[in-house]
Amino acid sequence: MAEITQKEKNDDFEVFEKVNQRYFAEIEHSVPHFQQTLFDLQNECYKNWKNAINANVALQKELLGKSGFNFPIPKITQKIIDNVGEEIVKYRLASIKIAISSIESVTKNVKTWNDNANVFVDLNRKIMHNWLSPFIPKSDTQK
User: Fold this and answer.
1) pLDDT for residue 25 is more than 80
2) Which end of the chain, N or C, is less surrounded by CB atoms within 10 Å?
């Protein structure tokens, strides 16, 4: 049986490196388009929602005007409607702040992980060498 040289062993990993490069190159190419598509969809959904609400309010206003049932809303009811609207806006702003804070926190954690990736690799390498040391014969030069 022929001995496998260190170079031949390392050549086996070239296929992994090639696949990784191709995979991440594709991600770097496609993700911006994917993000833009999601942003465009979100904008269209927002416009649709806004148009549906505005159209329904206009339709109700027209219906009440033409039917003759256009009675004035009492001031206390107007105030309640206004307060509910104000609370909805406050809730939405608070929700957005919480979501943004959470996203920024996760981003910071991922950045910290990325900044320290080499430290983790070195730590894992030391653990691996420690575990393997009883099974790897020492050469005469290491004694």
Assistant:
1) yes
2) N
